[in-house]
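[Automated response] Your request has been received and processed.

Submitted sequence:
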Amino acid sequence: MSETVHPRHTALSLAASGVPVLPLRRGKVPFGNCPTCADNACGGRPNMKTPGPCQCPGVCHAWAAATTDPAVLTSPAWTDAWRRAVAVAYHPGGAGLTVLDLDDADAIAWARTTLPATRTVPTTRGEHWIYRGTMTSRNAVRPGVDIKSTMAYARYLGPGTSPLTDLPDAVRVLAVKQPPALRPAPRAVSVPARSGRRCPHRTPVFLERGIAMAEQRITAARSEVHATVYGAFLAVLSRHGRCGCLTDAHMARLFTAAQAKGETVRHCTDAWTNARTTLGL
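Generated structure:
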């Protein structure tokens, strides 16, 4: 029976086999949290990364809402969600599975020449390769390849073909993050000072104060770290980016402060590049 016609029927069947399920709304994304649970104010569901006391009867907290309990799946709140659902999703990690989401022909070709065969499900643009075993979920582990296992959801697209095989180490290593470099990769800003004018920023104390203030702003961030890092980079470049004063050492200090808050070198590089583009540097 098609899950797009009878999503709750499909969900109950999956739940009976031990697969935690949840409905997807238009756009094939989970339903948003209710007002009480907005911004995780309730503390979260017990099976989320940060345990909490939430007992919300609604379809809240995305992947963490997935359940095998038929009483929950047929409750009034969930019944209303099923009426509006366009698809069924499941929590692979909760079912002891890992889904390798291959998004295009190149990704599929890579998998066929690199990984052991396993259960395969066709998707709109590629394939889901499903392995027995769980691991950390991570997107974009290589071009066109996402890993969906713990703390993630995958759309249910059918039972697939071929038997399940054990999760290979070749997939596990894809999710291992490489440690960030100690120094940033991008080139230093090298815009020469205007001819005939002495740069007003050549005073070491003035430039040092600007860099220190940016470091302090990043370090003090308690939320929206991405935006804070970009804003700090933008402020430094708007003040010191047109005269050639900034060096690799200055950039290294800013990137180090950002990395200490959890930013990757790639995110730092993107923020720096975007700030330069905004200022026309």
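Summary generated for your ticket: The first strand starts at residue 21 and ends at 25. Strands lie at 21-25, 29-30, 87-90, 97-102, 119-122, 127-132, 138-142, 145-148, 154-155, 165-166.
If you did not submit this request, please reply to this message.
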